[in-house]
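Might you be able to check the backbone structure tokens below? Thank you kindly.
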Amino acid sequence: MARQDFYIKKLLQDQARFADLYNAEIFHGKQILKAELLSPVSLESGIVITDRNGRRQTIQRRRDVAMKASLGACFIAACCEAQGEVHYGMPVRVLTYDALDYTEQLTNIQKEHRKKKDLTKSPEFLSGITRQDKLVPILTLVLYCGKKTWDGPKSLSDMLDLSGPRECIPDLIAALPDYRINLVDIRNIENLEYYKTGLQQVFGMLKYSTDKSNFYNYITSNHDRICQLDDDALTAVMGLLGENRRLMRLLAAPGREEEYTMCKAIDDLIADGKKEGELRMASLISILLKENRLDLIAQITGNESLRRQLFQHYHL
């Protein structure tokens, strides 16, 4: 699954696609983040803790993709974690990443005040910052590209053991701080139209890839746009789909006798879908003939919904 994570990270290193992801999933299609106002930031964050015995311990984490985004007069740190497998500890993992980033910001502010020696009040000396100091918001997205529907926790409360006496649970839940992750399950995205870059076609192909009929229909109806995907996008979509043979041909060095293009790869996928669809149809008709269901044979030629039901019923 590390390879799937690599394809997603490679896609989102492009600032236009990174902005598109946040605009689609956080801002519901509104074009809030601008690619030209994004700038990469360090993927490393960490702190050094000194225990009572003076021994130092370093806690360090590395983000998959991170950008600093300008929102008018303020900034946010937008970070994305790519997942090819369900991670049952993801809320704690994201909480740790975000907490380290906030701690690092706080430490940097404290260092600046120590240099300037401008803290004058007792509470300021205690905390190392002033009441006016603010932190840059951290907004982390978890982008999940696995084939299995995400069944892991989506918040810290989902991971907690709350099996105590019933009468105390509501008060306990109300008092406990929670931490919710912003999960994007690619194969369950509801509003593909929110995406304005090639992510729409990449995520669309992944969304429909689990149903061969839907996949064939999608790539056929979006043929021209899919063919216009750039090299990173087409490499990612072939890799994520598991089309390794076609991916190798796409990545082949130029100068070969046959130049294998994205359009050729998509045409091959369409041809495969058409051929497989014909085989499924032939198998279904054969079964119905054996069962003497001539009435159903007449209906399935023009009723796609009925065909799908029968394909599922007969495990075709």
